[in-house]
């Protein structure tokens, strides 16, 4: 039987500056799924650091049937650039893309990136069908649901592919394809090596700044894996030597009872030297959940706080208020679980068709609020970003509608609030930027468990502090 070689890569790179934290689990899911459907498939995963010359050499040597590329809105311009070169060098090659950016902007991805096809949303089944029909492409594109491609000179999108209902049926990501040496891991961790696990797919909320197109499919629907299935993956990871695991669902507590069952199930493994981190929403935390998190050895939880202003939280449809945020931090911290807060500065939203902005006082009070939480020992780490329009988010649509950005803007480009915020100078933005970075550094230095292997990210923060915005 002919061997089917497939290359999967998340080429991109954040300019090679920060190193790749972790492999793309989406691609490792595709690899694992393909292996269950074809006995003659051989998948090669190429991490970001290897770059185009390495991939070109690999293509010449193994002559893959398909290449699959993961694209985020952050990596899109770089991926387009690289794909154009690949298409020139290997015109016979079928290059397929998927991930959050092609899902949010399929037509643009095909046109600017010159991909043969892009998969919209969940990729396991669509990519399997593409491989099955690889010898009959491009004719067979029409028969594959959930993809966009060029038919003649026209963009064509096939009917929407429904989500996989029972996500327990999807095999665990093919982690045997990756080497820990290729990734720098989390900036804060108790132990190494570190892995991510995705206990659920989807998020029922609609925060304005958030781009989460892949598992929404127009519906705020969440699919959860069974606690036993998650436990089995963690067991496998422990055997492979991983000692810290990030339960990287958008919100582990989207369903409180289920999240407690997941934690209890993981605690029952009894691995005392295995540490966990997870994402929690501030409005759905109970003492029972906290106890279950303690039992499973969860040392840090990450909570989206975003802003210290209820006006802003309401505007961006976060669905929490500032008291809930503080209570959630207090409940975790008082029970020995460290809190990592996510914040966003200079938010933008729309009210009755008019633009609304987070003003300088509100931004400043958000940084002060983080400081206050830290002083009260309710916050241990923080990260913050200037709210940036990402494809797939409501913020991106708002920014486009009001002319704040155009189709050439991608989230990896600098977004300067002083350009659109009435009466805000670059100097003010820069001083708030420094103030935020300084606080972030103070928290990290005081809270410990900083991983120096991630020195590039620390260095870039240091440079930001000196240079300003
Ligand atoms: C873990 C994670 C990370 C990890 C690892 C990223 C990775 N590549 O897996 C780290 C920490 C490195 C990371 C970094 C960043 N992330 Co991140 N991250 C996530 C998170 C929480 C989970 C990703 C995941 O594993 N999902 C589960 C898997 C199964 O889904 P998936 O990756 O989407 O893959 C499926 C489909 O997309 C599709 N698919 C994917 N690739 C391909 C390729 C082909 C060929 C095909 C056919 C199909 C296909 O099939 C897969 C299986 O169904 C998501 C949120 C989310 N819910 O997905 C955000 C998310 C992907 N991240 C996001 C962002 C913004 C970032 C950063 C820019 C943050 C920052 N400011 O630095 C960086 C940039 C990373 C980069 N260089 O592209 C956004 C992306 C938005 C966008 N429009 O692009 C998301 C959606 C969060 C959000 N809600 O806004 N991230
Ligand atoms: S920020 Fe979190 S809660 Fe809000 S939509 Fe995104 S993933 Fe869901």
The CATH topology name of the largest domain reads pyruvate-formate lyase- activating enzyme
Largest sheet, strands/sense/barrel: 7 strands, mixed
Tally the beta strands. Answer: 17
Number of structural units classed as domains: 2
- Ranges with pLDDT <50 over ≥5 residues? none
- Beta-strand content: 15-25%
Shape: globular
Instruction: Write out the CATH superfamily name of the largest domain.
Output: tm_1862 like domain
Strand line-up of the largest beta sheet: 2-1-3-4-5-6-7
How does CATH name the architecture of the largest domain?
Alpha-Beta Horseshoe
Portion in helices: 25-40%
Instruction: List the ions, cofactors and other small molecules found in this model.
Output: cobalamin, iron/sulfur cluster
Provide a count of the helices: 15
Cα end-to-end separation: 57 Å
Q: What is the radius of gyration computed over CA atoms, rounded to a whole number of angstroms?
A: 22 Å
Structural class: alpha/beta
Please describe the topology of this protein:
Blueprint: E1 4-9, H1 25-37, E2 41-46, H2 51-62, E3 66-70, H3 76-89, E4 95-98, H4 100-104, H5 106-113, E5 117-119, H6 124-132, E6 147-151, E7 154-157, E8 194-197, E9 200-201, E10 223-224, H7 227-239, E11 244-247, H8 256-267, E12 275-280, H9 287-295, E13 298-306, H10 310-315, H11 322-334, E14 338-345, E15 348-351, E16 354-357, H12 360-375, E17 381-386, H13 394-401, H14 426-447, H15 455-467
Parallel strand pairs: 1-2, 1-3, 3-4, 4-5, 8-11, 11-12, 12-13, 13-14, 14-17
Antiparallel strand pairs: 5-6, 6-7, 9-10, 15-16
The chain binds cobalamin and iron/sulfur cluster.
